[in-house]
């Protein structure tokens, strides 16, 4: 069996496991120390280097556009679309083969701290005065969690191949949609579907691409990928998505081990945009009707960036030390990368300038200290909050594949 097949088996789960509409077996914690063929190949990346890129490239090269699966999606109108069907390809598992979390359960931050490493990444979401953390160790196995937070129906999504963590409002035209995985990819990115109309949706853009809602777009909600300890400190009374998902998966392990070391994205056709390394992480920021991406490589020299996007003064804050979810087989053993978030610099009728002072983020106007969630935790503005901007973390190849005219912080003009 090849590496791709092994990865697909790991994602789809053990034989005989039931999906979201079947019985709910108890989830189990990760059992490290049982590397698969996929893990063995990818964990060799630090030694083999370019060999991993060759393996991934070879796996992607023979992939072909598939015939549209009308038997799997009987309600989907495949004649109504905004994309070429040849761009759609199988990712391996069938419809809902990677099962969404449809009946989420929650634990307290104290309970979650028993199984989350302090530096492990979570998607932090706040809505209607409530905050919740969605650990990537869970979403890497499910890719979608349909939930309600602060009265708002949301879908928390994560595409491991694109490293894209995006949160959407599930409401459209007064209806609440539930999302699942089609088992298909476009430009290496997750293609979702809603169970109400079976419209296919592009995860990275939030756009309906095939079916009744083709051409429509879901509303994105602010979210940030941060270290668990930062979330726990910032929101001690929040809730956390539980490992009791109704599915048995080795939470805490990474089925894409070594992917961070790849030089070419998996199951991606074409040539990645040369302006940035394909697997460079970027933060995209939307403000004033404009967008800009910030390469994570820039944060080493500029951990705090004062900028302007679409006429809006923005600040990009970063903090190093968060574990990658796509590096080692055991996430807790993975390398550390930055976390980043973006906010408007306008507050109380003035525009602030931010800087790093003795390892802490402060504004030069009042000297107040701020955390990664845009909250002043000390000083004259203590208790004040900056307005979060629409943002998302992605691999550069993915964002640039869908936004070839993207504006990149620090230069690199569009092709």
- Overall 3D form: globular
Q: What Rg, in angstroms, do the CA atoms define?
A: 21 Å
Average residue-wise pLDDT: 86
Q: Reading side by side through the largest sheet, how are the strands ordered?
A: 2-11-12-13-14
Helical content (DSSP H or I, runs of 4+): 10-25%
Instruction: Enumerate the spans where pLDDT stays under 50 for 5 or more consecutive residues.
Output: 1-6, 14-65
What count of domains describes the coordinates?
Answer: 2
Range of strand content: 25-35%
Count all strands and give the number: 30
Pairing-aware structural class of the strands and helices?
alpha+beta
The oligomerization state is single chain
Rounded to the nearest angstrom, the distance between the terminal CA atoms is 40 Å
Main beta sheet strand tally, sense and closure: 5 strands, antiparallel
- Number of alpha- plus pi-helical segments: 8
In short:
This protein has eight helices and 30 strands.
Please give the structural blueprint.
Blueprint: H1 3-12, E1 28-29, H2 37-43, H3 45-48, H4 50-60, E2 88-90, E3 106-108, H5 109-112, E4 121-127, E5 130-135, H6 136-142, E6 144-149, E7 152-159, E8 164-169, E9 171-172, E10 175-176, E11 179-186, E12 189-194, E13 200-202, E14 208-210, E15 220-221, E16 223-227, H7 228-234, E17 239-241, E18 250-251, E19 281-287, E20 290-295, E21 304-309, E22 312-323, E23 336-344, E24 346-347, E25 350-351, E26 354-357, E27 360-363, E28 369-370, E29 376-378, E30 390-395, H8 396-402
Parallel strand pairs: 1-18, 5-17
Antiparallel strand pairs: 2-11, 3-17, 4-5, 4-16, 6-7, 7-8, 8-15, 9-10, 11-12, 12-13, 13-14, 19-20, 19-30, 21-22, 22-23, 24-25, 26-27, 27-28, 28-29
